[in-house]
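Q: What does the assembled structure look like for these inputs?
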Amino acid sequence: MGFVPLFGCRCGLEDRYTHIMKSHRKVLEFHLRSRMGFVNITPQVREALRESGIREGLCLVNSMHITSSVFINDDEPGLLEDYGRWLEKLAPFDPSPERYHHNRTGEDNGDAHHKRQVMGREVVVAVTRGQLDFGTWEQIFYGEFDGNRRKRVLVKIIGE
Amino acid sequence: MGFVPLFGCRCGLEDRYTHIMKSHRKVLEFHLRSRMGFVNITPQVREALRESGIREGLCLVNSMHITSSVFINDDEPGLLEDYGRWLEKLAPFDPSPERYHHNRTGEDNGDAHHKRQVMGREVVVAVTRGQLDFGTWEQIFYGEFDGNRRKRVLVKIIGE
Amino acid sequence: MGFVPLFGCRCGLEDRYTHIMKSHRKVLEFHLRSRMGFVNITPQVREALRESGIREGLCLVNSMHITSSVFINDDEPGLLEDYGRWLEKLAPFDPSPERYHHNRTGEDNGDAHHKRQVMGREVVVAVTRGQLDFGTWEQIFYGEFDGNRRKRVLVKIIGE
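A:
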């Protein structure tokens, strides 16, 4: 008595050890040398997941800025061009404060706040057996709509 | 023998106590006196997080209605005006059943269901060290597109 | 000594048992006999939740494809027609590679990649007391924009 033998807490605790909630946080940084652009960030998110050691859970990836997006689609250059032209039609760049009252603040990025709403702020990806649980063509993109400066993306993974 | 001394289960259990999964649920209520409008709900979500005691996890904030949105963007009055005019262009208010067949049901809010799809239903925010893990300008908004009645937003936080 | 009596690990472990993180994964399959279409998948997601035994947590439902969506809105046939016509206006079907450079790859589904961005890839739903924590009219839809083939939706639930 006086101490519990090592195997003393084994009555099911190994199972539990595998069910302890873990979390992992990583910030990715980008600096695009253009106003608009798209970067496939799937490798960086995979690396963050590997570091986390999490096998089952959810992985949130979000832009920490309000003029850029994180979204999932195909890594095909023609499609990314298409998105650029389409977003320019839906919410054209216009530094004047007439079209975008937001530009009365001295900013010229009113359009970028609108483009970001179409493409979204974040994605949540399932984590299964330690992998991003993706269909064949799913790739995670950072979409920049007001570049030429340093921007950040947050990866937060919770699970076991 | 016969019982295990109190410290007997301490072989790592303190650590585990800090890894127990918790969840917290809160419903926020709104009643906007206009058809369309935006409310910064970041303080209410922060308060819900504080109540939860959760330090690491994910915070889901979603509209419980199908004619309103929860989204993250800048708290700048000109931008919110811009969103209003832009959404009116993408999906104009029109109570007739010609433009929106949905209005054949007797409703006049077909436009609101479309505006909500552009702005989104929900956001998922990382929780880190007990705080909403936000970039500098990120603020959570409730976007109303069919107001003049009571509406609800759900906050659900899971983590440890 | 030599073994720990059964009650030996009861010092609070029952509580912990109820807080062990669980996860559940299910893939739903669809084959729409039309290019565009909407399917209410709420019953299938409810069934997955029931199977999981999870009482408190988050439920991710996402398309595993990049030309279809999962979204939450009203199950009203007029509204679904409205969405179809509206998306056709925002991103018209056009198999030529002039409008959508993506179609230079030999695909004809450039429009579908755009429609999917408007309607979204995924929803995250709160799980409370073993139920989808929904407002009155919330229903989960699969939105197909490039049908006539087998497609998959992932349901991933984490919680306790």
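Confidence is low (pLDDT under 50) at residues 1-18 of chain A.
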